Amino acid sequence: MNPRHVSQAAILQTTIVPATILFALLLPAPTTATPQPPDAYLDQTARHLVTGARATLAATRQAITTHRALVHERLAFNAPTGRRDRPWMRGSRVARANWSRTAPPAVDILDQHFRHPGIGPGQPRYFQGLRDDHLPIDPLADPFTLGLAPFMGADAAAAAIHSPLGPDAERYYQFRSNGITTLQLDNGETIETIPVTVIPRYRSIRLVAAIMWIDPETHGLVRAAYRPAKRIDHEVAGVLREADGWWLGLDIAVDDGDADADPPANQPGWFGQLINETFTAVLLGIETDISAAIVDLAPAQPGHWLPCRVQWTGYTGIESITATGSVVPTLPFVIEWTQEPSDGGEEDTGLLPTGRQWNLERARGNALGLGNTLAAIGNGDAGDTNEAASPWYLYPPIWTLNLVRYNPVEGVSIGAQARRDFGWWRSLLTVRAATREWKEIPDLDFTLQRDRPGHRMQFSVYRSLRTGALGAGGIDGFPLPVIFESDSLDFHRSTGAAMRLLSGSGDRLGLSLSLFAERDEVVETGDKHDHKDETGTEHDHAAAAGTDDDETGHQRNRFGAALEWKPWWGGMGQESIGAGGTVSVRGSAGDHAHVRTVVEGALLLPLAARISLGLQAGFANVSGDPAPQDLWDLGATGAFLRGLDEAVETDRAWMGRADLQFPVRYARLSLFGDWARAEGGDYYAAGAGLVLLDGLLRVDLAQGLTAEREGVPEQGLRIHVLMDNLF
Questions:
Q1: Residue-wise pLDDT tens digits, 25-49
Q2: Domains of the chain, each with CATH number or no CATH
Q3: Which residues contact residue 99 at a Cβ distance below 8 angstroms, ignoring those fewer than 6 apart?
């Protein structure tokens, strides 16, 4: 016997019925409930390998009676935002798992760690993991049902997914073989396999696009890599259930229909249904995608391969297919489990090594190449498409809560969206109507986006209302969903076209390039945007922009480009050193040609007793012939300076900020000081704030401290609600 097989048998502690070795070689392929479509196999090699792998899997299921292993489970979520990375969750545990054909599985948790600095104090806690019923310890489980198991449970996933090795897989897939590929096993040995590409016939989360590496000698499945045939988006729904008390959770509708599949006794009444519908409305626009699920198998006995490692790599976030709004970075995740030797003795403590950091980025990087390959598989010839997802989806008005906003120009504006999915291309049309401008043509944004695991590309045409608030990006969007008259921002309406090159959906917005051509028109608010500059002179922006007779003042035509980089290095939490910043350059030619630049850096230093100190400094500049909306507004949004009742406009500014944070139970208390210098002098502010979700949201109470002088806006206690902060 091969020594590799002996060692693996000891590792997995699997009992094999001897006669099944011959059974694996002679077992015919299972019969299908319906005749095989004639186009299922694109070559005879694929037919031979797939039917052989199906028979070998069936033989292995008949052969195994017991199974024992140490299961190492790891889970990590990052929260990459527009400004810095945050470690959203980190969990790991070790369990001794015993499986038997004649008894329920037994799981003994040996050690576990859990950190969730986003909402708690960041101390280690118990890690519930994927729960015992989600642990993939069942050696008889189909490898292709593991993709949704962490989200739906093992039994639900097995019932929902059409496996490429299932008895009627030909109804749902086409198969094509490739050349011989050599794979390296965990023990260093190599094995020659033949990859078989699995092509889904239509788009559905019940199907997968996959590659199977099959041993041509034993027909054993050595490795499988796959991803759902479509991303999970409008299949996500909110569900209120009664299980040991009422609780609100998420469901994934695997058939693109009603996600609520509970028995009538657990169905909520009319109030529960209202909660479900409201929660689902808030979730509109959320998407989740598994970029790659990679299953490695190990030989237990000649001809029998069992899963020894599974890794899920993907992301979840808010769909942001738009040219007029900010690109929202998503939350990448990695889930991984491995099996290691276990003989059931006391020496198998399975304790997690202390001080070891699981490298999320390295784990994601290993799957990136396979993710690109899987994304390129596409769809084959359609078969029975009753379960195919509709390519169209409508987000109606009012119901689309994330498209409701208020500002002095529009009043309350309400948007609606229509989306068309072309696979790895998708389009989104957004139309927005305003209560104060009901006679005006509604704003619209039509964007076509190309998705790949490593990058995104957007082509857009638009007519949209924008602000001149402090921002760093190629195309300014709206900073907040609610803007009051006192914020005194400059508004302008832009009509044009743009192309953007962005990081992949699973990556943070690190490097982006924008190209645009547009026409801008100044929009007046009730106070005509009267601002004071650093000399104390009041300016009417309508007059500054020109009159209807001054075409280049009232309207301007421009084209240009913008490049933005947002790096972050080192630690991501409050307990380790981290540094990063933003570098952004935008240049436009045509009317009011100018170059707009911002450079800022930040340093996060951990102190004793989980106290942290954040330091930030930056420089903003506009050169050339900028229009008023191209200037920097200090004090309006609190981005560079807090504590002022009105904005200070300038074409050049320096800033500095110090932020000292103390942990409280579910948040952090911040004491801060701000400094900014415009051409007319220095501005100061100090205050206190409450930091939530590790800096994703904070509420600050700031007081301007600048000495009274001509041109300084009124100072008083000002509340700032800020999102996506460095600290």
A1: 333 333 444 677 889 999 999 999 9
A2: 3-234+284-375 (no CATH), 531-723 (2.40.160.50)
A3: 66, 67, 68, 105, 137, 138, 139
